[in-house]
Design brief:
Number of domains: 1
Number of strands: 7
Low-confidence stretches: 1-6
Strand content: 15-25%
Strand order of the largest sheet: 3-4-7-6-5
Radius of gyration: 20 Å
Structural class: alpha+beta
Number of helices: 6
CATH class: Alpha Beta
Helix content: 40-55%
CATH architecture: 2-Layer Sandwich
CATH topology: Beta Polymerase, domain 2
Shape: flat
Mean pLDDT: 91
Largest sheet: 5 strands, mixed
Amino acid sequence: MLDTTEGKFSIDEITEFINLMQLYEGAMYEVSTKLEILDDEFQVRFSHDPIHHMERRLKSIKSIIGKLQRRGLPISIDSVRDNLFDVAGIRVICNYRDDVYSVSNYLSSQSDIQVLRVKDYIKNPKQNGYRSLHVIYAAPVFLSSGEHYMPVEVQFRTIAMDYWASLEHALRYKSDLPDAKLAEHSQTLLDCARSLQNIEVQMQNIHRDINGAPRVEETPHTTA
């Protein structure tokens, strides 16, 4: 057994974990490639790039084990496979809210993609002001052992939403400010979130008048 500060794993379990992470990584790149192709198509058809940039990440083993422990789940490969759907993640930063829904819906409609779960924090923001569209997709990975569908969490948000979320995350998890100052900044960020939302709506309306890209307001629906 391999003894770590988080748990114990046999050599066979370590090998199985490495193989599992390969599947997650393959699914992550499968989805990101599909997104890049959609972005290229929008540029050709509408002279508009809906995706400003993308960020990919795989959770570390420490992060995976920590999440299982916080949820009171067994520390095992099966537990990861059955309970964690955000091991592979992609953050898609779009220019406008229309782009968020257009790209997410076009991706959701592809025949080899399954939509497992949708949480729309744009239409229903969190209490702290957080806005983003979270979609968990199942994407196929083709290996010598056959086809494997693996979950990938994709967070769609605008530049303004991402700018706000980065600062809020730093305030919550990376600062050691006194409680009073923390509460003050949290309220300010909530006010900023509302202001940014109003500004985004105004800028999107201008964009709609000068650009012929699709206008989509519908949240993706689950397919699995």
